[in-house]
Design a protein that fits this description.
Catalyzes the ATP-dependent phosphorylation of thiamine-monophosphate (TMP) to form thiamine-pyrophosphate (TPP), the active form of vitamin B1. InterPro entries: PurM-like_C_dom, PurM-like_C_sf, PurM-like_N, PurM-like_N_sf, ThiL-like. Pathway: Cofactor biosynthesis; thiamine diphosphate biosynthesis; thiamine diphosphate from thiamine phosphate: step 1/1. By secondary structure, this protein is an alpha+beta fold. The protein has two domains: about 140 residues, 2-Layer Sandwich (60s Ribosomal Protein L30, Chain: A); about 160 residues, PurM-like C-terminal domain (Phosphoribosyl-aminoimidazole Synthetase, Chain A, domain 2). The protein is built from ten helices and 13 strands. The mean pLDDT is about 90.
Length: about 325
């Protein structure tokens, strides 16, 4: 199967057919009808075999994950996902693999109301790159640079499950049978908090998604906002699977530095905390307050209750 036959068969109609796509897959470029009074948000993520996934991983799960991790970046900025571009590098065309990958890509793009509008296919060591685009009302995008002293720090969901799922796949950690499905689902099939991200536009002062671990990621907000933070690790939300499978030290390491949670980390001014409680009720997403923003720029203080919590690990970095 050649490049163009592969595109036509598996990727020409992927995701939701959007009315604001004038020209999609098949031309030299896509033509998109961007709405008046909206800003366009663009993000890119790459998944490389041996770094982000194993060679024998389920290709359907890879298709899902590639979309979800990109859409999670849009969710963190309060954007509505719209269009996707795919750069696919394969050593050979394995039609069974491509078919399953495309199925995962399509069903997840459709779930988030996105349309695949183009990209590139090449031969080489396997890597999967996606560019995701979204729209947000003009001037309403959430960023990492708005946190202020006194703001409260929140995270959605539970942290550390995906990292435990990775360790389970690697045979580095045992997980009881009753928790294995949940843990593997969190690792292979992450969810993007799109609806909640859009709802936070008028409440959160800063936001980002958690991809490299809370300990590492929160410092991006501190650096961009010129503030510090005090985090009570005892308040970090942990699933029952983590609690049943790990001692406290391991659980904290997974939650703080494990990565790939794709939950939202955001800050809220004290005056808007009441609005947050009202806002959350329709979404069914657990949100936990884990600390506050402080005034010493770049300083991250970790404590466990009233005690200092010494910590040595960092989150994932490609060139660290």
């Amino acid at each position: 199967m050649g490049e163009f036959e592969l595109i036509a068969q598996y990727f020409s109609k992927c995701g939701t057919a959007r009315s604001d796509t004038a020209v999609g897959v098949g031309d030299d470029g896509a033509v998109l009808q961007v709405r008046d009074n909206y800003d366009l948000v663009v993000t890119t993520d790459t998944m490389v075999v041996g770094t982000h996934f194993f060679p024998d991983d389920d290709p359907r799960a890879l298709g899902h994950k590639l979309v979800a991790v990109n859409v999670s970046d849009l969710a963190a900025m309060g954007a509505e996902p719209t269009w996707l571009s795919l750069a696919l590098t394969l050593p050979v065309v394995d039609e069974a693999w491509v078919s399953a990958f495309a199925a995962g890509l399509h069903e997840t793009a459709e779930y988030y109301n996105c349309q695949l509008i183009g990209g590139d296919t090449t031969r080489g060591p396997m890597s999967l790159t996606m560019i995701a685009k979204g729209i947000v009302p003009r001037g309403k995008a959430l960023t990492r640079s708005g946190a202020k002293v006194g703001d409260y720090i929140y995270v959605t969901g539970t942290l550390g499950d995906a990292a435990l799922g990775l360790q389970l796949c690697q045979g580095r950690h045992d997980v009881s049978k009753k928790h294995q499905t949940h843990i593997l689902q969190r690792f292979h099939y992450p969810s993007a908090r799109v609806a909640l991200g859009q709802a936070l536009r008028n409440i959160a002062s800063s936001a980002m998604d958690l991809s490299d671990g809370l300990y590492s990621d929160i410092q991006h907000i501190l650096a961009r906002s010129g503030v510090g933070a005090s985090v009570d690790v005892a308040r970090i939300p942990l699933s029952q699977a983590i609690k049943d499978s790990c001692d406290t030290a391991t659980a904290m390491q997974l939650a703080l530095s494990g990565g790939e949670d794709y939950e939202l980390l955001f800050t809220v001014p004290e005056a808007k905390r009441g609005s947050l409680d009202v806002l959350l009720s329709p979404y069914g997403v657990a949100v936990s307050c884990i600390g506050r923003i402080t005034g010493v720029a770049g300083k991250l203080e970790l404590k466990y209750g009233e005690q200092a919590f010494p910590y040595q690990h960092t989150g994932f970095t490609h060139f660290g």
